[in-house]
Write a structure and sequence with these properties.
Length: 337
């Protein structure tokens, strides 16, 4: 499957670059990339503020209230404070790898959002196997996490990175099985076709079991509660982020909320009809659905208890894997045969 996905990516790049109107396409891609970048920054900023408010409400606190109306400017003040501090790398770290890994993760997350169609006529290129390409690139995330942890030269960072990689790779397999089920339902791995095939009924109603498996696996991919093993305060401090200085911690915050935005968009496209809706712009419906899903993920952080590593792996292999296979068989029997 990895060979097929790399071949699909290569074919897509060749077809994109061999077009006669490369300059015109490049101008359109730049404009689209700028618009998506603005959307990502706005979404990340709003999610950062909203999560602090939601967790504070659940825990009977006020959250940000002072800087700006309703505390809306508190995140801006925090970012300015973090960016104003000096940046440094631990003496025992591999400075080049440690400096590159975190920005590479953020760049990969942003690029994956650019690949997603936010409306019927948007997205980079016409990708017949877009879903497979997105997840083939997403599979590089554990490698970058591992590089960051090893390059830190800190045993806590190394252990945390190993935990994260083991967890993510374990939960990727049930997720890929659910993706195969979605391909059978839509008769395509083109993300636009997947959305259009849900015009009459969303896949969450056709495959509720598949949605449950995919949702849990996506939480593990995003390292959100109850799968936030990297931040086990009692034994790992801040995990593979322990040694990052203030400016890089700002990047880490952007990375967390960008990944949440990415995961929310993927779930909405695959199970909630994507941009389908009435009376408003398609991108509006997609973003609103993604925001609702992100709020639910935040509520889990405020209420769920972190799982131990052994229970987490046992749940992935002994519970999610059989459920994913059952979902695949049922989808084949009901919608393909």
């Amino acid at each position: 499957m990895l060979t097929f996905s790399i071949s699909a990516i290569a074919n897509w790049l060749v077809s994109l670059l061999s077009s006669a109107s490369v300059v015109k396409q490049a101008e359109g891609l730049v404009a689209y990339a700028i618009g998506v970048a603005i959307l990502i920054m706005a979404f990340d900023y709003f999610l950062g503020w909203l999560e602090r408010k939601i967790i504070a409400k659940v825990q009977a606190r006020h959250g940000p209230t002072v800087v700006g109306k309703y505390g809306l400017l508190q995140n801006l003040a925090d970012f300015m404070k973090l960016l104003a501090k000096s940046n440094f790398f631990p003496k025992s770290s591999d400075k080049l790898l440690f400096a590159v890994a975190l920005p590479a993760m953020l760049a990969l997350s942003i690029f994956l959002i650019l690949l997603l169609p936010l409306a019927p006529s948007t997205g980079i290129g016409n990708m017949a196997n877009g879903l497979l390409i997105v997840f083939a690139l997403f599979a590089f995330m554990p490698l970058l996490i591992f590089i960051n942890g090893i390059a830190s030269g800190n045993k806590f960072g190394e252990i945390s990175a190993q935990r994260s990689v083991i967890m993510i790779m374990s939960y990727e397999i049930p997720m890929l099985i659910v993706i195969a089920s979605i391909g059978m339902l839509a008769h395509s791995y083109d993300l636009v076709n997947i959305v259009e095939s849900q015009a009459h009924i969303w896949y969450i109603f056709l495959m509720p079991l598949g949605f449950f498996v995919f949702f849990v696996a996506m939480l593990a991919e995003l390292e959100r509660s109850p799968f936030d093993l990297r931040e086990a305060d009692s034994e790992l401090i801040a995990g593979w982020l322990t040694d990052v200085s203030a400016p890089y911690y700002t990047l880490a915050l952007f990375l967390d909320y960008t990944k949440m935005f990415l995961g929310s968009l993927i779930v909405v496209i695959l199970f909630f009809g994507g941009w389908s809706g009435y009376g408003l712009l398609p991108v509006f419906w997609l973003v609103v659905k993604a925001l609702i899903f992100a709020i639910f993920v935040m509520l889990l952080r405020a209420t769920a208890v972190r799982m131990k590593l052994d229970r987490l792996l046992r749940f992935g292999w002994l519970a999610l894997m059989p459920l994913a296979l059952i979902n695949l068989i049922v989808a084949y029997l009901l919608f393909v045969m």
